Each structure stands twice: as C-alpha cells, then as structure tokens.
Amino acid sequence: MTQGSVTNGMQRQKITFKCTSNDTNPIAVSGDAPELGRWDASAALEMQCQKFPQGGCEWTAVVELPLGSTLEYKFIKRSGNGVLWESGFNHRHTVIPGAYTISDAFRE
C-alpha cells in the first residue's frame, strides 16, 4: 500500500486509527470529515477487531484524508442499546505527510 494518493487534484494521506476497548462491542470513528460520516453515526468509519487473549479488542481502520485538513472525531461503540459516544472532548488532528497511526483507548 502507498502512503497516500491524489483525488480530484487533492493530495490525500493514509491514516490508521486504532482504539482499544475492554469489550468486543463494535467500534467506529465518527467525525466532521465526509470519510468519517460527518457526525452521522450510521455513516461512521467501521473498524476491525483484533481480540486480546485477556478479553477486549484493539480496533483498527485505515482511511485516506486530505493532506493539510484538520478534523475532529470521536470513537463510537455500537451495542444492542444503540450507539455510545465516547466521553470527553472531541479528538482533533491535522493530517500531515507520512504514514502514521492515531492510537487511543475508548473513553467510557
């Protein structure tokens, strides 16, 4: 995989999101960028689970975002009771050149 691409004349950078959780309820990334669903939980970027032997998961998703853009996002957890948005302030990130990973733990 390459580190990024060009779409409609705009450079894009590949970013890996990682989020750890104590359970296996599905996690997604929702944010103000179109690639993250524009805060619509039903359109959020789905993540894949790598289960921990002791329980819980590390959730991972890869997305390409416009280089130089600043985004706000939160991780959301899906369950039979609906969607749980992580607590606290929004995460904020500016997309810079180079392959990298944004890692965090789900804030209950």
By DSSP (H or I, 4+ residues per run), the number of helices equals 0
Q: Look up the CATH topology.
A: Immunoglobulin-like
User: Would you state the CATH class?
Assistant: Mainly Beta
Helix fraction by DSSP (H/I, runs of at least 4): under 10%
Q: How is this fold's topology laid out?
A:
Blueprint lengths: L3 E4 L2 E12 L5 E5 L13 E2 L1 E4 L5 E10 L3 E10 L2 E4 L5 E4 L5 E6 L3
Parallel strand pairs: 2-10
Antiparallel strand pairs: 1-2, 2-6, 3-4, 3-7, 5-6, 7-8, 7-9
Q: Could you explain the architecture of this structure?
A:
The protein has 108 residues and is mainly beta. The protein has a single domain, classed as Sandwich (Immunoglobulin-like). It is built from no helices and 10 strands. The protein has strands at 4-7, 10-21, 27-31, 45-46, 48-51, 57-66, 70-79, 82-85, 91-94, 100-105.
